[in-house]
Amino acid sequence: MKNRIVRGILALALGLALVVYPVGFAVAEPGSPGAHSGSQGTDESLPVVKKDPARVEGFRTARFGMDENEVFRAIFKDFTISKDQVTRQVHPTEKTTTLGITVKNLILQTGEAQILYILGHTTRKLIQINVVWGPRDGKSDAQALINAANLLGDYFSRKSYQEDGYLRNVGLKNGSILAFRGKDARGHMVMLLIEQLAAMEDKDKGKVSPEPKISLKLSYIEKPETPDVFHIREGDF
Fold first, then answer.
1. Within a 13 Å sphere around the CA of 156, how many CA atoms are in the beta-carbon half?
2. How far apart are CA 200 and CA 190, in angstroms?
3. Element (H, E) at 153
4. H or E element, residue 195
5. CA-CA-CA-CA torsion for 50, 55, 56, 57, nearest 10 degrees?
6. Going by fewer Cβ within 10 Å, which terminus of the chain is more open, N or C?
7. What are phi and psi of 142, to 5 degrees?
8. What's 83's DSSP letter?
9. Residue (of 194, 166, 169) closest to 181 by Cα position
């Protein structure tokens, strides 16, 4: 199972290379400027909807700060997947450890999802969880993943987040779409990315499929500004 690079995702988490971009899919329009803080707009005749503050602590029973054995137990509790069915990889440069599983139909009609639990380089504790849906076999339904992105974006929008860094449905220069990004009061982040992939060749017919191929990545990140990954310290060279 492919190890996802923490820094690549964090570049998006920190808001790099954001532009207004026509999405080309059935993605909902961005909410009003006050949507994340509970306002329904500036019209005084409209009721103000108060939202509970978001608490980004992890995914299901897996929580930031868990050690490897605790993550194994959380995986079994959530998905009845035993330790010997979990892949384990150490990133060659970041020195983080990724525990990976594959789960079917986390959301209906989205097929298989990879769930990747990332443990920090120095703490060996859980710092990030990525849930990834995508056309590894070239057969995934792009519209089903777009529908899932809309459902997830609406779900996360029920809570209030910090204004700093809050985004809905923003295009990136590479053609991907940042469907949702928000930080809770402690700076923990949830991020949802729709990534356009290169056209895939039909193995049976030897043709390139005209249909768009995308992946959908949901990330829960404990410390987006200061990830626990290996780096060369100031003064070492």
1. 27
2. 29
3. helix 142-156
4. strand 189-197
5. -160
6. C
7. -60, -40
8. G
9. 166
Domain ranges of the chain: 6-20+54-221
Owner of token pair 């949507």: 35
In this prediction the pTM is 0.78
99 with 72: CB under 8 angstroms? yes
Letter for the amino acid at 186? Answer: R
Backbone phi, then psi, for 83, in 5-degree steps? Answer: -60, -40
**Residues near 108 by beta carbon (within 8 Å), at least 6 away in sequence:** none
pLDDT in tens, 96-141: 999 999 999 899 888 899 999 999 999 999 999 999 998 654 556 7
What is the radius of gyration, based on Cα positions, of the chain? 19
User: How far apart are the C-alpha atoms of 169 and 27, rounded to whole Å?
Assistant: 7
Pairwise CA distance, residues 179 & 27, whole Å: 8
Nearest C-alpha neighbor of 115 from the set 123, 126, 125, 146: 126
